[in-house]
Amino acid sequence: MGAERRRTFVAGLLFLGLAAGYYALADRLPRGVLFEQIGSDAIPKFLALVMAGLAVLLVAVELVWPATGPAEREPENRAAFLGTLAVLALATPLWDLLGFLATPLLMAGTMVVNGTRRPATVLLVSAVGTVVLYLVFFRLFDQEVPLGMLRG
Question: In the chain, what are the helix, strand and coil shares in percent, each to the nearest 5?
Answer without folding.
Answer: 70, 0, 30
